[in-house]
């Protein structure tokens, strides 16, 4: 039985969806008493936001739900991540294709669409970057739903 399970959330720039997923998932894991059994991180497939804080709109939307993601900083995925994480969960099919390219070349943990763990009926977390405030709220709803399913999966893994 593993003592710790590691989860990596991946989006395009690591400033909207994946840091939101990291924050939501961390909060839910803490509320359910299993945060000590988890290592949670996020990253992007692109390199243009490395070192930057999450988008202010993501930070504000998460903050309205009591989740502080302001201290997170963007980073780009690297090949070692596929060996270091038990779950590599991507936000959309484009991210999936990019991360699968790394996986096919190097092996490790096979990436999956994050929303496979949810009940929303959607396959992808839409990128809210070019949209309005409602998009950031929708992202939070989708991420919360999938995070609940992911925690159930991890509890089975830890049992």
Automatic annotation (TrEMBL):
The active site is at residues 11, 17, 127. Its EC number is 3.1.3.48. GO terms for molecular function: protein tyrosine phosphatase activity. SMART domains: LMWPc. Keywords: Hydrolase, Protein phosphatase. It is an enzyme of class 3 (hydrolase). Residues 5-153 form the Phosphotyrosine protein phosphatase I domain. Signal peptide: none annotated. Belongs to the low molecular weight phosphotyrosine protein phosphatase family. This is protein-tyrosine-phosphatase. It comes from Marinobacter halophilus.
């Amino acid at each position: 039985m593993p003592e710790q399970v590691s989860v990596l959330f991946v989006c395009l720039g690591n400033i909207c969806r994946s840091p939101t997923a990291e924050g939501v998932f961390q909060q839910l894991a803490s509320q359910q008493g299993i945060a000590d059994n988890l290592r949670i991180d996020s990253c992007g497939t692109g390199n243009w936001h490395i070192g930057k804080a999450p988008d202010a709109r993501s930070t504000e939307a998460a903050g309205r739900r009591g989740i502080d993601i302001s201290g997170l900083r963007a980073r780009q995925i690297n090949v070692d991540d596929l060996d270091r994480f038990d779950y590599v969960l991507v936000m959309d099919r484009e991210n999936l294709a990019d991360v699968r390219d790394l996986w096919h070349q190097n092996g490790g943990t096979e990436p999956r669409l994050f929303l496979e763990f949810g009940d929303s009926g959607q396959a992808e977390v839409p990128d809210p970057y070019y949209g309005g405030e409602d998009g950031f709220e929708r992202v939070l709803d989708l991420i919360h739903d999938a995070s609940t399913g992911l925690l159930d999966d991890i509890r089975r893994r830890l049992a």
